[in-house]
Specification:
Shape: globular
Strand content: 25-35%
Helix content: 25-40%
Number of helices: 14
Domain Enolpyruvate transferase: 7-408
CATH superfamily of the largest domain: Enolpyruvate transferase domain
Low-confidence stretches: none
Largest sheet: 4 strands, mixed
GO molecular function: UDP-N-acetylglucosamine 1-carboxyvinyltransferase activity
Function: Cell wall formation. Adds enolpyruvyl to UDP-N-acetylglucosamine.
CATH architecture of the largest domain: Alpha-beta prism
Pathway: Cell wall biogenesis; peptidoglycan biosynthesis
CATH topology of the largest domain: UDP-n-acetylglucosamine1-carboxyvinyl-transferase, Chain
Strand order of the largest sheet: 22-23-1-24
Bound molecules: uridine-diphosphate-N-acetylglucosamine
Structural class: alpha/beta
EC number: 2.5.1.7
Length: 424
């Protein structure tokens, strides 16, 4: 298993180009199943989760070709409606094929994804929404199965205990796009990735209105047409490099972003005196010796994203004063804290809060990545730590960040990927 070795303390300078959004491209690849034809996707991030979704599409009989950052998908010869456990267990987002397979074929068999390190992550809302549309869903031997679904438009309230669900909103929106008649999803998630999937489905002939608000209206269609579509930039990747910049850069220009998608982070950075400069699609950031601490409460979009809280916690270890980070969406998202403690951070956790005292001098150490965003946080900590940090289990980061070591070393970081067998 590869590791990263990072020598901390380098001053970063230059430009980083943001890739397409992982959380958009995965459901969009799944939504391509709705059409019996070809889809061309541009600005696709070459991350491991995209390869896993490619394998799922190929397993069911689609053809998927990667050409640089473009994907060509042909769904004419799909001959299976099953997503097996071996593939689904690699990536929870595999369940996105449920909505599109039921939408196009009226049947699907998709392994239940199971929990993951950040929490239980149930799929009850996905099932509730699909059942409301008329899907005959049974749970059998760890699989969600549908045999003879005839989807009919209806009104669905999708909000759950932890607020709206991005995944359930998208899955139900995909199925409703192929249902007979009009559907209204209320309590829908408003994340930019939901809008991107709706725009994609509309680009192949769908009729979805209101994506990005809590109420989405969908006029079901029986046929779709071929399309070419470009994926929006990844706001979490951009946010991660913005934090790298305010921690360690003389000047770092983050290019190809949609700044409005990063509003909650940019507002917080302004509040603590780190003043990012926004110019069209670019964001310029630089480090400052002293900056204030602040509190963060994670909330669904447009609130502060749960996918940015670990990276922001690293920033708070360098801020002056106490800060509290409250996680409200996932129950177990402080797995990175013990690793930061090993690097010298002063953090206590209690329930869903992390209490951070800053500033602390971080020191390089051997640490282990537990999940995708925790890995990103450890890289950020290593960039400002004294000495050498070795991060193991970096396959987590490869799931969602395109060529992170290349992007960071291009702007002056000392980061190299090693295979333990080749390690000195
Ligand atoms: C997506 C993102 C993930 C992000 C999360 C929250 C993708 C591929 N992943 O995950 O990066 O951290 O949104 O912004 O887009 N819930 C239920 N029942 C359900 C579904 C969800 O109770 O059927 C709960 C979840 O456990 C969680 C909350 O609802 O507490 C929100 O989860 P959800 O928005 O569904 O997250 P994902 O779509 O899995």
């Amino acid at each position: 298993m590869d590791k990263f070795i990072i020598d901390g303390g380098n001053i970063l300078e230059g430009e980083i180009n943001i890739s397409g959004a992982k959380n958009s491209v995965l459901p969009i690849m799944a939504a391509s199943i709705l059409n019996n034809g070809t889809t061309v996707l541009r600005n696709v991030p070459l991350v491991h989760d995209v390869i896993t979704m490619k394998q799922i599409l190929e397993y069911i009989g689609a053809k998927v070709e990667i050409d640089g950052n473009t994907l060509n998908i042909n769904t004419e010869n799909i001959n299976k409606t099953e997503a097996p456990y071996e593939l689904v267990k690699k990536m929870r987002s595999s369940y996105y094929v449920l909505g599109s397979l039921i939408g196009r074929f009226g049947k699907a068999s998709v392994s239940l994804p199971g929990g993951c390190v950040i929490g239980a992550r149930p799929v009850d809302l996905h099932i509730k929404g699909l059942k409301a549309l008329g899907a005959d869903i049974e749970l059998e031997h760890g699989y969600i199965k549908s045999r003879f679904s005839k989807l009919k438009g209806t009104k669905i309230f999708l909000e759950g205990m932890h607020g709206p669900s991005v995944g359930a909103t998208i899955n139900v929106m995909m199925a409703a796009s192929a249902a007979n008649g009009e559907s209204v999803i209320s309590g829908a998630a408003c994340e930019p990735e939901v809008i991107d999937v709706a725009n994609f489905i509309n680009s192949m002939g769908g009729d979805i209105k209101g994506a990005g608000t809590h109420t989405i209206k969908i006029n079901g269609k029986t046929t779709f047409h071929d399309t070419e579509y470009s994926i929006i930039p990844d706001r979490i990747e951009a946010g991660t490099y913005i934090i790298a910049g305010v921690l360690a850069a003389k000047e770092l220009l983050i290019k190809n972003t949609i700044p409005s998608h990063l509003e909650s982070l940019l507002v917080k950075l302004n509040e603590i005196g780190l003043n990012p400069i926004v110019d069209h699609n670019n964001i310029l950031v630089k480090r400052k010796e002293n900056f204030k601490s602040t509190n963060i409460k994670v909330l669904p979009y447009p609130g502060f994203p749960t996918d940015m809280q670990a990276q922001f916690a690293v920033l708070m270890t360098q801020a002056e004063g106490k800060s509290i980070i409250s996680e409200t969406i996932f129950e177990n998202r402080f797995m990175y804290v013990p690793e930061l403690l090993r690097m010298g951070a002063d953090i206590q956790t209690e329930d869903n809060n992390a209490f951070i005292n800053g500033p602390t001098v971080l020191e390089g150490a051997e640490v282990m990545a537990s999940d995708l965003r925790a890995s990103a946080a450890l890289i950020l900590a290593a960039l400002v730590a004294k000495g050498k940090t070795t991060i193991s289990r970096i396959y987590h980061i490869d799931r969602g960040y395109e060529r992170i070591e290349k992007k960071l070393s291009n702007v002056g970081a000392s980061i190299k990927r090693v295979n333990p067998n080749q390690e000195e």
